[in-house]
């Protein structure tokens, strides 16, 4: 991927970054501790509009959702509103045998 010019590109850049992430980098991104290596890896996605701190915060949010989702639920779907600022994760919980779906996380009030 190349430089980030909009939020859609930022999401695609995160997916590219996430495909090749190590366990150590995952922990650093989720906890925001020892992030020097992660910062070096994501600098290629930065622009004047999307600074290293902004990209790091967004990647941290995406990584946290992905990490928690992988641990707790299956068949997760993330739904965004038209402005892509509010979202909810709808999924079937891993510990149930029924097809009961629930909202796992949402920033929609």
**What coarse outline follows from CA principal-axis ratios?**
globular
Spatial strand arrangement across the major sheet: 1-2-3
As residue ranges, the low-confidence spans are: none
Residues in helices, as a percent range: 40-55%
State the total count of DSSP E strands. Answer: 3
Q: Roughly what fraction of the amino acids lie in strands?
A: 15-25%
Topology record:
Blueprint (H helix, E strand, L loop, with lengths): L6 H13 L3 H9 L4 H7 L9 H21 E8 L6 E7 L7 E6 L3
Antiparallel strand pairs: 1-2, 2-3
Could you provide a short overview of the structure?
By secondary structure, the protein is α+β, with helices and mostly antiparallel strands. It is about 45% helix and about 20% strand.
Task: Name a few traits of the molecule.
single chain; 109 residues; alpha+beta; three-stranded antiparallel β-sheet; 4 helices; 19% strand
Describe this structure in words.
With 109 residues, the chain is α+β, with helices and mostly antiparallel strands. 46% of the residues lie in helices and 19% in strands. It is built from four helices and three strands. It has helices at residues 7-19, 23-31, 36-42, 52-72, and strands at 73-80, 87-93, 101-106. Strands 1-2-3 form a three-stranded antiparallel sheet, with helices on one face.
